[in-house]
Design goal:
With about 260 residues, the chain is α+β, with helices and mostly antiparallel strands. It contains six helices and ten strands.
């Protein structure tokens, strides 16, 4: 019986590995500038240059990918914990440690193949494929239109700022009502930002998408102010978890305790 269980498990692992390996893309890789060491990433984790991590536009946080430098066939495995890069043709931003293993720190960018090794719990292959074919920032213009393409080693934060500076044909207006609240229970964190510039528009988009009230938590992460968009409150963790499972457009969302 135990031998049968082991055989079934081996088959499942083989099937899962084969399926995720089908999720791959080819493009350019860049790497973070040293000044972003210790900053908070889009997932809420602190970025460290010596860790094997990377930023991707759409893959769920926690996804493990194999990155191969097509110029020298060197490979490295990293975990996605941030969003970016926001420059056309660039598909992944790596930590310096990962870039050094791929041997392209002297050039700034290189041609790579990115293959999904494993997905985080709760993420399906089909969801990841759909996300990887969807632009990370719908409606934004790329660096090849009105935005000046940034130099190598710029961070996703800098590139995101560059994208928001695209000239638009008209102004946008939002009606804002701000009330201090003291929620209890649980919430679902949908996004986090270090800059408040995109917060208002993103809140309007998210509220319309999920059809539920949202709140902004202004917190501090290692001395850096962070704005977190949270859906809720929910009176129990179970209700928050059930709501989170129904979300299709927020791959990095997770349940938090409100305090």
């Amino acid at each position: 019986m135990n031998k049968l269980k082991l055989t079934i498990a081996a088959i499942l692992i083989t099937i899962t590995g084969a399926a995720t390996a089908q999720i791959s893309e080819i493009g350019q890789a860049s790497f973070y500038a040293d000044k972003f060491d210790g900053k908070t990433t889009a997932s809420g984790e602190v970025f460290k240059q010596n860790k094997m991590t990377a930023a991707h536009r759409t893959l769920p946080f926690g996804t493990v990918v194999k990155v191969t430098n097509l110029d020298n066939n060197q490979s490295v495995t990293v975990t996605i914990n941030d969003r970016g890069p926001f420059v056309d043709k660039r598909i992944i931003d790596l930590s310096r440690a990962a870039a050094e293993k791929l041997k392209f720190t002297d050039k700034g960018t290189t041609n790579v193949k990115v293959e999904v090794v494993s997905l985080p719990e709760g993420s399906s292959v089909e969801q990841a494929k759909n996300q990887s074919s969807t632009p990370a920032w719908p409606g934004k213009k790329t660096a090849e239109t009105d935005v000046i393409a940034p130099a190598p080693q710029q961070s996703p934060t800098e590139r995101q700022t560059a994208v928001t500076e695209v000239k638009t044909p008209s102004n946008e207006y939002y009606k804002i009502t701000s009330t201090a609240i003291y929620p209890k229970g649980y919430g679902v964190q949908l996004a986090s930002y270090q800059e408040a510039a995109n917060l208002v528009k993103r809140c309007a988009e998210i509220k319309e998408k999920i059809g539920k009230d949202i709140m902004i938590q202004i917190g501090d992460k290692n001395g850096i102010k962070v704005y977190r968009i949270i859906a809720g409150p929910f009176e129990s963790r179970e209700k928050a978890e059930n709501f989170n499972k129904k979300l299709n457009d927020f791959s990095g969302s997770f349940v938090v305790t409100l305090e």
